[in-house]
Amino acid sequence: MNELEIVLFLDVDGVLNTWSRTTRDDGSHIGLERDFVRRLRQIVEKYSLKIVFCSTHSWHLEWQKAFIKLLQAEGVEWDNIPIVDRIPRSYIFGNQLSKTHEIDFWNKHFQPKHFVVLEDTLCGMPEMEPYWIKCDHDHGFTQERAKALVAVLDSFNK
Questions:
Q1: In which residue ranges of the chain is pLDDT below 50?
Q2: What pLDDT is recorded for position 119?
Q3: Which of 16, 52, 90, 112 falls 20 to 30 Å from 101 in CA-CA distance?
């Protein structure tokens, strides 16, 4: 079986938190909504998803600590979280691509069998639209968005 059977590209701000409830004075966002993480965890475990973080926050130690702490509170040990990578990678190479192009580049390089994106921004690539689950940044990963994610994941088994 392909180790990268199904990859979930996961954004944080506007997905695992909401802009209206976690905005700092400087405009940055930190913190996670427990219900959103719990909902996501159930789906990740059910479908054996591999996670690629596509959030600039994934590069900051403070955010990583907050994420680990909340996951541990939910009973998920860090060793069990199927994180395989994080982007943006282009910053490393001195270029800056759009997030959509970063995801496209990653998919072409690592060639997962399937992928889905959980984001609070618009896609921008028609060929990715069916796999792009957009959350409203003021509401985050709602039950409705979870159902949309599950519908895409279930379509991979048809």
A1: 1-2, 91-94
A2: 93
A3: 16
Domains of the chain by start residue, with CATH:
6-155 (3.40.50.1000)
| Residue 50 amino acid letter | K
- What local confidence, expressed as pLDDT, does residue 9 receive? 94
Tokens at 86, concatenated = 């994080």
123-143 exposure pattern, b = at least 16 Cβ within 10 A, e = fewer: beeeebeebbbbbebeebbee
Hey, what are 21's tokens? 């409830």
Q: How many CB atoms lie within 10 A of CB 150?
A: 15
Q: Would you state the pLDDT for residue 37?
A: 85
Q: Which residue has the tokens 């954004």?
A: 11
**The pTM is what?**
0.82
C-alpha 96 chain-centroid distance: 19
Q: How many other CB atoms are found less than 10 A from the CB of residue 61?
A: 7
